[in-house]
Design brief:
- By secondary structure, the protein is mainly beta.
- It is built from two helices and 15 strands.
- The strands form two sheets. An eight-stranded antiparallel barrel has the order 1-5-6-7-8-11-12-15. It has a four-stranded antiparallel beta sheet with strand order 3-2-14-13, with no helix packed on it.
- A hairpin with a 4-residue loop joins β5 and β6.
- The longest helix has 25 residues.
- It is elongated.
- The chain starts with a helix and ends with a strand.
């Protein structure tokens, strides 16, 4: 084949295969890569938060010490202390909100209320108002203490077993203790008293004060559903002392001033049943 023939053949092949090569090249264009948009994940605003409500029954409420008491007679203050004091058992209630940090740790803030009747007796080493020298005055005191407590609490959950979660906890805060009007009954005791001494009943304005409070808890929660738990527990609560009541009107008119009685606080045991509802 001559040189001219070879050039003509090459030119013809180029004309035939050039479109095919272009088509094949088009099949291998590099892919266009588009960054994948990030997946939208909604924020769970309520995750971890819960609400709680409780009812309970207090028992074994005890005064932490005697009631410090002052008698006023003929311009003289005579200190004394009650020898016997007792609180009754009663119901209590509470509400609160908290946060579950993980399966082991949670915390909440609670607001609780209760009311307990109180009675005590004392023998003052001084005569009752108007009594003779050498006599003593027997005093009985009765009132009701209304208490509202605000506590910050921390709990350790001890694992969940077949839906049951035992826990322990501790809390601290303040309690507003309000002593309602106090009735005192004074009776003359001694040789100078009448054969049948007539008791004198006085009314005193009760005092209110904020007091440091701490609590220790233990209990068991049960998972009723994903969001709802039943909580049965025990709580020990200790409330510090404070002012109790003022002098009665007759003593104040005779010159008595200041607080007549203070208490040393009280402690109580409490059985509680409540619900905890998780907000997610």
């Amino acid at each position: 084949m001559s040189k001219t023939s070879r050039l003509l053949l090459a030119s013809a092949m180029a004309v035939v295969f050039t479109p095919l090569a272009s088509a094949l090249a088009a099949d291998y264009d590099p892919p266009i890569i588009v960054d994948k948009a990030p997946e939208f994940v909604p924020v769970e605003v309520g995750n971890g938060w819960y609400l709680r409500g409780d009812i309970g029954y207090t028992f074994g409420t005890e005064a932490e010490g005697p009631i410090s008491y002052r008698m006023f007679n003929a311009g003289v203050y005579t200190p004394a202390a009650t020898s016997i004091s007792a609180f009754d058992d009663n119901y209590t209630w509470g509400v609160g909100a908290g946060y579950q940090f993980n399966r082991w740790l949670r915390a909440d803030a609670t607001f609780d209320g209760q009311e307990n009747d109180f009675a005590s007796i004392a023998a003052v080493a001084a005569p009752c108002a108007g009594g003779a020298v050498g006599d003593v005055c027997g005093v009985g005191i009765a009132s009701t203490a209304t208490t509202y407590s605000v506590l910050a609490n921390v709990y350790g959950d001890l694992g969940t077993y077949a839906g049951f979660t035992p826990y322990v906890g501790a809390g601290a805060g303040m309690s507003r203790v309000r002593w309602n009007d106090v009735a005192s009954l004074q009776t003359c005791v001694g040789p100078g008293c009448p054969a049948v001494p007539a008791p004198v009943i006085n009314s005193h304005n009760g005092e209110a004060s904020w007091r440091f409070t701490y609590a220790l808890m233990a209990g068991l929660a049960y998972n009723v559903s994903k969001n709802l738990k039943v909580d049965v527990g025990y709580r020990y609560k200790n409330i510090a002392g404070g002012d109790m009541f003022n002098f009665d009107a007759a003593s104040a008119a005779a010159g008595a001033t200041g607080i007549q009685a203070t208490d040393d606080g009280f402690s109580q045991h409490e059985v509680r049943v409540g619900l905890r509802y998780s907000l997610w």
